[in-house]
Design brief:
alpha/beta; Rossmann fold; globular
Length: 320
């Protein structure tokens, strides 16, 4: 990372914004007394960028205690670091949080190539190197959970705990995947530029069985609509196969927590079960009535699970 990013002076305005947000985080308390929500404009203003040795630029938002236990949070397909805003106020304020925009998303670079899970995971490794983070807990949602799996499989020595939210072990070999109630992949392939952030598809793409803040969802849709359609399609086309995912999952030896919403329309029972079977020592929690984004719908409950899990055992200690 450049010396400008590592040691340069932050503007007074940015410093004030960061201080205000850290005060908010320091007030975080478990479930019964909800902390003050993060101001979305304040959050967006805290984003930083790092030029990686592979030529990509990765954006991220640093929060929490800069001297605390590092936790890298990796968002899902077509989202960005703001994905974690509902959850962050409930997380332990002693943690050092690094919220990443994966390549092709948010303020990170959007190269022509490539968008495999290994490309995403290697970017995270290079970001850790740039920030001088030797070891981190990794939290991922949906596509981000697959990136987290891949990182933990490839760099176990740099991985502490792993939290996979709305993740998948893929479909069983020889079985026909159940037809989804809403075929998101087919709808994505029908998209045309410019993408309308308020189209019926985009509204459905960010829908939840329980209410989520409307302004937060509007911003997520707007930012996703700004992602080039070629990136939407590249991620879809370069996604993992079930066989490849199942082949490498046995390499994930770190303590792992699996979280799903029971009403997740994307990661349904079959692909949950294959992941549970592939990681027999993982802790599993299925939250009743929640959908694909349980940490938006009930952030207090998700944070309580994550806080307890990250604090339960020495970082990186095996549970089997």
């Amino acid at each position: 990372m450049s010396s400008r990013l590592e040691t340069g002076l932050v503007s007074k305005a940015a410093a004030l914004l960061a201080a205000a947000l850290l005060v908010t985080l320091s007030l975080a308390r478990p479930a019964l007394c909800a902390p003050k929500p993060i101001d979305l404009d304040t959050f967006d203003a805290l984003k930083k960028e790092v030029r990686l040795p592979n030529g990509e630029t990765l954006a991220y938002v640093p929060l929490g205690n800069p001297h605390g236990q590092p936790v890298i949070l990796i968002h899902g397909y077509t989202d960005n670091a703001r994905d974690w805003v509902p959850l962050v106020p409930y997380l332990d304020p002693k943690l050092r949080l690094i919220l990443v925009d994966i390549r092709g998303h948010g303020a990170s670079s959007k190269p022509e190539c490539c968008y495999t899970r290994y490309d995403f995971a290697y970017d995270v490794k290079l970001l850790m190197d740039a920030l001088h983070v030797q070891r981190a807990d990794i939290v991922g949602h949906s596509l981000g959970s697959i990136i987290a799996q891949t990182f933990a499989e490839a760099w176990p020595e740099h991985t502490g705990h792993v939290v996979l939210i709305a993740s998948t072990g893929g479909h069983r070999a020889g079985t026909m995947p159940r037809k989804p109630a809403y075929d998101f992949a087919s709808e994505i392939r029908k998209l045309k530029e410019p993408i309308d952030p308020d189209s019926p598809f985009m509204v459905e793409w960010w829908s939840s069985p329980t209410p989520v803040d409307a302004d937060f969802l509007r911003r997520q849709r707007k930012d996703a609509a700004a992602i080039p359609l070629r990136v939407w399609l590249a991620v879809l086309d370069q996604g993992v196969t079930d066989a490849d995912l199942q082949r490498t999952l046995p390499k994930l030896a770190s303590p792992t927590l699996l979280i799903w919403g029971s009403k997740d329309p994307i990661m349904q029972d079959e692909v949950r079960q294959t992941l549970i079977e592939a990681l027999p020592h993982a802790q599993v929690k299925i939250l009743a009535g929640l959908g694909h984004n349980p940490f938006w719908e009930d952030p207090a409950a998700c944070a309580a699970l994550i806080n307890a899990f990250l604090a339960a055992a020495p970082q990186g200690a095996a549970t089997h």
